[in-house]
Amino acid sequence: MDNLTEEPSIPEPKVAYPAMSGARASTPEALLKSGGAESCRTRDESPGGDPGRKQFLAGIAALVGLGALSMPSLVRAGMAAAAEDSADAPDASLLRDGPRFDEDEAENIIVRMQKELQTAMRKPIEQRKWVMVIDLRKCTGCGACTISCIAENHLPAGVVYRPVMEEELGTYPNVSIRSTPRPCMQCETAPCVPVCPVRATWIRPDGIVDMDYDQCIGCRYCMTACPYHARTFDFGYDYSEGTPARQPYEEVPNYEYNKRWQQRKGRSPVGNVRKCHFCSHKIDAGMLPSCVTTCIGYATYFGDANDPESLVSELISRSNKIRLKEEMGTRPRVFYLI
Amino acid sequence: MNETQAKPSNLSRRQFLKSSALVGGCAALATACQRAEDLASRAEAGTLPSGDFYDLARPENIIYTTCMNCNTGCGIKAKIVDGVMIKIDGNPYSPWTMTPHLRYRHSPADPVIAALDGAICPKGQAGIQTLYDPYRIRKVLKRIGKRGEGKWKSIPFEQAISEIVDGGKLFADVPGEESREVEGLDRICAVRDPALMSRLRADAARVTAGDMTVVAFKEAHRDHLHLLIDPEHPDLGPRNNQLVFNWGRMKAGRSQFVQRFISDSFGTINRIGHTTVCQGSLYFACRAMSEQYVNGEWTGGRKFYWQADLRNAEFVIFAGSNAFEGGYGPPLRTPKITTGLTERRLKFAVVDPRMGKLGGRAWKWVPAKPGSETALALAMIRWIIENERCDERYLSAANKAASDAIGEPNWSNATWLVKVGADGEPGDFLRVGDLPEEQRPSGETDRFLVLREGRLHAVNPDDTENPITGELLVDTTVDGIPVKSSMQLLYESSCEHDLEGWAEICGIRTRDIIDLAREFTSHGKKAAADVHRGVSQHTNGYLAVAAWMSLNMLVGNFGWKGGMIESSTFNATGTGAGQPYPVNNMHPGKLNPFGIPIIRDRVEYEKSTLFEGYPSKRPWYPIADSIYQEVIPSAGDAYPYSIKALILYMGAPNYALPAGNELNKILSDTKKIPLFISNDITIGATSAYADYIFPDGTYFERWEFHGSHGSVAQKVQPVRTPVVTPLVETCRVFGEEMSLSLESMMMGFAEKMQLSGFGPDGFGNGMPFTHPDHYYLKMVANIAADGSPVPDAGEREEAVFRSSRRHIAANTFDETRWREAVGEEWWKKVVYVLNRGGRFQDYPDTYRGEQLTNAYARLVNLYCEKTARFRNSMTGKRYDGIPRHYPVLDSLGQPLPESEEEYPLLLSTYRQSVQTKSRTNSAYWLLAVVPENAILMNRLTAESSRLKTGDEVIIKSASNPDGVWDLGELGMREVKGKIKVVEGMRPGVVTFSLGFGQWGNGARDMSVDGDTIRGDERRGRGINANAVMRVDPFLKNTALSDPIGASVVFYDTRVRLERAG
Fold first, then answer.
1. Do A244 and B24 touch (CB under 8 A)?
2. Are the CB atoms for B996 and B990 separated by under 8 Å?
3. Which of B 636-665 lie inside 8 A of A, CB atoms?
C-alpha cells in the first residue's frame, strides 16, 4: 500500500515504444503551491503578450466550444438527425428524459455514470470537477483500456496514453499480482503546464489538462516535468510501417480536443507531445471516456466530484483511496482504491 | 470478377506498389481508403459539420454484431464513419459485455442508448486490425511452387472453381508435378442419387450389424461397387467420403451452410471440427454425464459443459480455467468476479501451475502439478464424503419425481446400483430383468434399481409420479450379483490413496486439500468448481473432468443460482415450433451420407469390418467427435482409407496442435493429400501449404450465430452480420454478384457440379438459394420467431437499420434481397434482432427464486454406463464409467520412457488477454503492449538452471530432441524463446503463452504474381513450443491424446532447456 505512493512503484511503461527522453526535471517549488493559480492558468485567462494569429483562432475555438458544451452533443446529434429526416424524428420527450431504465439497469455503473455525466454537462463547465477513480482490487491488467484508448484517439506507434503496469508481489508460493493503469493524472497543480514555453498546454475549467497541437513546438519540456511519465512524443510512426499498405483506420482523423486530426508526417499531432485528456471530446458529447466503458473489470470510474450524489464522490470519500505521489503537491484528479 | 480499380489515394501509395493480387487492387479497400482521405481533407478544409461533432455516438453510425477475435463471442458495436470502421465497443444489449445488460426493449435509435458502450477486451478492441490488415488476400491464389514454398499466382474465381471441380494436370508448371493428375471434386462425388445412397447406407449398416455378409452386399450392389471406397469394407462408405472438410473455428450459421454443401449436397461424412484441440474431453465428459435413458438406450447427451454462475457464486475453484485471460471469459466473466471481490460476496481459489492474473488475486493459489487434476478432485471428494458434507438430500433423489418433491431442478444416478464383475470392475447398471421374477419390484425389466431400507426399488428416471430415493453408499450382493451404488464407486475411487498420498501426487500440502474441500462445502449450492483446458487436455482428461464435475454433483449445484449453468440459445436452424425456415430440411434431393469418418469418431472399432484385434492401427473414439489431431495424420496413414481432397477452413492445425510440426510432412506430400484447398483471410500457417487459397471475409464481413457459453445464464443468440463491404474481390455465382468467401466458394462448386440444394430452386418450390443472404436471413427470422417472437421494429428503428448500412455495397447489403429472403411477415422482426446484435433474454428473467430459469433439468450421470460399455481400441480395455486417477500414458496405455533426469521440467501453456492462438498476431496494437512471449519459470528453477530473465533457450523433448520446427519448404525454425523469471510459477514447470512464434499470417516473405511481399518480423516474434510436445510413441505422427474424450495433450510433456548458442 505504501509502495503506491513511492517512486519505485511507478515503473517506466513496460510497453515496446520508441525511446522517450529519460531526463527528469526537478519539480519547481512554485508547482507545489496550493491552488497553483500562478503556474497553472486556465484557457479563459488570456495570456499576455502577442498571442499570434494561431493562438487567437484557437482561443475563438475554445470559446465557441464553451458555448456548445452546455448541452451534450449526443443530444444535439439526435436533434440533428431528426432535422435531416423527419420520418426518423426521435420523440423529443425521449431526448429530454432519456430512456426509462428499470431499477437494476440504472444500478449498472456504466448506465449510472453516463447519466451522472450527462447531468453534469447541464452545468456550466467551471462547476464540473471531473475525477477518475481506479479500483486496483478490480483491475486485472487485461489491457483493454490501453487498446481502446489507442483506437479512440488513433494513437500511432510509440504513443500511449494509458499504460498498465504489472507487478508481482511476494515470493513463491505467497505471491500476488497488482496491475496499475496509469492515465494522465490531470493534476490540479500540473507541473507540465508552466514549463511549456509556448503555452500550448493549460487546465480547462473542468480540470482537464488540455493541449493545443497547433501551438505545441514539440520541445518535450512537459514530458520531463511530468512526474508520472504521462506524456509521450508523437514521432509519426505508423503501425503499418514496413508493411505493404497503410490502412484506412490510420487515415481517418480522430476527434481529440473537438477537432479532427489526421496522422500525417510533418503535420500536427505528429511532432507534438501527446497525453490523455479523459477523452474530453467524448465528455463534451455526453459520453464516458473510452477506458471507463471498456474496463472489463469495472475497475475504472469517472464522474463529477462536485456532484455529491455521484458514484465517484462516494468512492473518493472512502479510506482506501490514495493518489500517486501526493507528496509532490500535484493534486491528481485520478484516485486509486486499494 | 469485379475488376474496378479505384484511383489510388495519394496517402495510400504503398499498397499500390505491391501486388494487386494480394493486398491492393481491391475496389472495396480502395474505396475505404479514399473515403478516409476525403474525410481528412474535409476536416482540414473545415467543411465537416460542427454541431454534431462526435460521429461515434450516432445510431446511424453503429452496427451491432459479434466479435470473433477469440471464441468467446462477445457482443460488439462496430462504429463506422464514412464506410470505415474506426472503433469497436461492447454491445450493451449483450450479457457478455454489460453486467447487467440493457433491456431488450430499448431502441438503438435512441441517442442515449446509442451512446452507451459495453466493455470489450483488448483483442476485441483490436478487431479493426483484423479487418484492415495489409496481409489480407483479396483474390484466389494458386500455388506455383512446391507446397509451402510460398510462391503464388492469383487466378480468377471461375478458373479456380473449374480446375478444382474438373481436376487434371493442375500443377504441370511445378517441377516434379508435371504429370501429376489431380482427381477433381466432380469425380470424388461418386454417389449423387439420394435413393442409391440410402440403399447403400442401409445395407452397409446390416453388414456392421452382422445381418448381411460382405459377399451378399457385393452381390446386391454389384453395379455400384465402383462408387465405394472399398467394396470389401462397405461400412467405409462411398468415395464421396474422400473429400474431407475440416475447420478450425466455425459457429452456427456457417456450420449449417457447410453441412448443407459438404454433407447434404456433396455427400461426404467427413465434416470435422476442431473441438479436441480446445477442450474436447470437457465437452465429451459432460455429454456422457448428460446422456438420458430413452427406450432402452442412452441418448441425447449434449455436447456442452457447465460453467459457474459467477454473478451469484460465493466460492469458486477455477481449475485450469483462466477466466481473466482466456477460458471463454474475460469480458463476460471478469466483472462478475471483480465485483464479487469488492462486494465481499465471492471468494475464489485457482488450481494452476501458473498463478497468472487470476491466481494473483485469488484467496488461494494452489499450484498443483500438471497431470494431478484428477488426484486433487478425488482427494477433495474423499474428504467431503468422509466428513459427510455432501448434499445427501439431492444425491438421494433417484428420479424426476423425487427431485420435484424436494425442489431440485435435476436428479442423479448416485444411488443406482451397478453390477461389479469378478475382476472388481463395474459394468452395467443392475436392472429389474437381472433379478429372479419373484424378486422384481416392477414388471418392467429395463428399470434401474436402488436400495432403501433393505429393499430394492425400481427406478424409471423420468417418472414424474412416483418419487424414488435410494441409499448413497451401497456395497452388497443381490441374488448373488455383487453390486455397488454409483456413489460407492466414486468413494472407492477416491480411496485409492489417503489424503497424504493424494497430496503427494499433487505436489501440494494436505492442508490445501482440506481447505479447498471445506470451503467448497461451506456455501450450500453457491459453490462451484469451474474447469477448463487445464483439466481436460491431459491423457486422462475425460476422467479428470468427470472428477471435477462429480465434485459439483456432491453439492448439487447444477441449475442453482451461484452454482453451475448450462447455456441456453435461441435456435437458428428453424426446426423448432413456430419457426418459419427449417433451412436444411428445405433441400430437395438431399443426400444422407454414411460411412466411417476418417477420424473414426462416434463409431465402434469392434463393430466395423476393419476389426482385427487390439491394438487398432490408430485409435477409435466411440464417444468423442471433432478430433482435430486425427484428421491430417489419418490421411497420412491412409487409415481407415486414403483421402483425395482436403478443404480447410479457418484452421491452422500445424500451428495450433501439439506436435503440429508432424503435420507439415503430410501436408507437403501430394500423395497423401492430392488436393488441398484452404479458405483463409491471409496466407495462414497451414494455408501456406495449400494448393489453392480462397479469400474469406473477416468476422466483420459475414454472417454467423455465435451461440453461448456455460457462464451465460440468459437464453441468447448473438448474431454476426456484415458491418462493411468485404475487402475482397467479388465473383458471380448463379448470376449474382457476391464477395469471395467460404460461401461463394461452396456455391461456386455447387453451381459447377449442379449439386442439389442450391440455385434458383435451391430451397424447393421456386425458392431461390442463389446468394448467401437467402440462407442467413432466414436463420435470423428463425431466431426472431423462437418461442415468443420478438416485437416488430418501428419505423424509426427501420430507418436506423437502413442508414447504418448505407455504406455497404449491394453485393452484401441489399434490402430488397434481404426482405425477399425472409418474407414481409418476418422482416420487421429480423430488423429488430439485427438492430441489437442478436437476441438476448432480459436480466430479471434469468433467475427464478434461487434457481436458474434455464436450469439443467434432467438426469445427471455420476456413473456413465454408456461410456463404460465401450472399449479402448488400442488396449482392448473397457473405458472407466467413474472418475479414476491415472498417470500419463501413451496410446497403448504405457508410461512414457523418458526420465526426469534427462527431461527435468514439465511444459505447460497459457493464454494472455492480448492474444488468441493463431490469428491475432496481425493486431499491431496488441503487439505494442506485448511484443513477444517468454518462457515463464520460477525463480528457484531459474537459479538451479543458472538462467536469468532474457536468456535465450531452446526447448527439447524426447520426441523432438533437437528442439526444431520442421516446416518443410519453409525451412527449419528452432523452438527458441527468452526466459522470464517469475515467482508465480510452480518450480519445475515452465510455460509459454499461445499466439506467438508464427510463420503464417504475414510473418514470412511470400511471392505473389512475381512480386515479393515482405513479411513483417513483428508478426513472427516469440516462441510456440507446440513442436516439442510429446508425440505418441506408437502413432509417431500425432501428439498424446486422451483415449476417451480425445483431447489432444498440451500439459504432459517433459522437456529440458538448453541455452541457445
1. yes
2. no
3. none
Task: Measure the CA angle with vertex B783, ends B778 and B789; round to 5°.
Answer: 110
Gap between the Cα atoms of B129 and B123, Å rounded? 10
If we measure between CA atoms, which residue out of B170, B134, B152 comes closest to residue B688? Answer: B152
| pLDDT bracket for residue B310 (50, 70, 90) | very high
Residue given cell 416392477 in the structure block:
B442
State whether residue B31 sits within 8 Å of chain A by CB: no
What pLDDT, on the 0 to 100 scale, is given for residue B1020? Answer: 96
The set of cell numbers assigned to A190 is 500540473
Nearest alpha-carbon partner for B1028 in B930, B948, B961, B952: B961
Which of B92, B913, B938 is closest, CB to CB, to A143?
B913
The mean pLDDT of B320-346, rounded to a whole number, is: 94
CATH of the domain spanning B905-1059, picked from 2.30.30.40, 3.40.50.720, 2.40.40.20, 3.10.20.30: 2.40.40.20
Residue B40 has its nearest CB partner, among A78, A118, A253, at A253
Rounded Cα distance between B1048 and B657, Å, is 8
**How near does any CA of chain A get to the CA of B849, in Å?**
16
**Burial (CB count within 10 angstroms: exposed 0-12, middle 13-18, buried 19+), residue A157:** buried
Higher-confidence residue of B913 and A37: namely: B913
Within an 8 Å CB–CB cutoff, is residue B376 touching chain A?
Answer: no
- Which pLDDT value is given to residue A247? 94
For the domain B307-566+855-868, what is the CATH code? 3.40.228.10
Residues of B in contact with A88 (CB under 8 A): 109, 795-796, 799-800, 803
Domain B140-278+585-695 falls in which CATH fold? Rossmann fold (3.40.50)
Looking at the complex, report in whole angstroms how far the Cα of residue A284 sits from the nearest Cα belonging to chain B.
9
- Contact across the interface for A77 and B54, Cβ inside 8 Å: yes
Read off the C-alpha cell for B306: 457447465
Whether B340 and chain A come into contact, CB under 8 Å, resolves to: no
Asked if B119 and A295 come within 8 Å (Cβ–Cβ), the reply is yes
Residues of B in contact with A141 (CB under 8 A): 357, 913
User: What pLDDT score was predicted for residue B42?
Assistant: 62
Residue of A nearest to B1004 (CA): A243
The pLDDT of residue B22 is 62
**Residue B13, pLDDT score:** 41
Residue from B52, B82, B369 whose CB has the most chain A CBs within 10 Å, to mutate: B52
pLDDT tens per residue, range B199-221: 999 999 999 999 999 999 999 99
Strands (E) across chain A are located at 130-135, 164-171, 174-181, 201-203, 209-211, 231-233, 273-275, 300-304, 321-322, 334-337
Cβ distance of B928 and A17 shorter than 8 Å? yes
Would the pLDDT of A328 be above 90? Answer: yes
Chain B contact set for A144 (CB, 8 A): 119-122, 124-125, 330-331, 913
Alpha-carbon Rg for chain A, nearest whole angstrom, is: 20
Pick the CATH number of A2-16+23-337 from 3.40.50.300, 3.30.70.20, 2.60.40.10, 3.90.550.10: 3.30.70.20
Indicate yes or no: CB of A88 within 8 angstroms of CB of B799. Answer: yes
Residue boundaries of the structural domains of chain A: 2-16+23-337
| Grid cell of B870 as nine digits | 465401450
Arithmetic mean of pLDDT, A74-79: 41
Domain edges within chain B:
10-135+700-725+738-840, 140-278+585-695, 307-566+855-868, 905-1059
Question: Taking residues B113-134, what's their average pLDDT?
Answer: 96
Query: Could you report how far apart the first and last alpha carbons of chain A are, in Å?
Result: 7
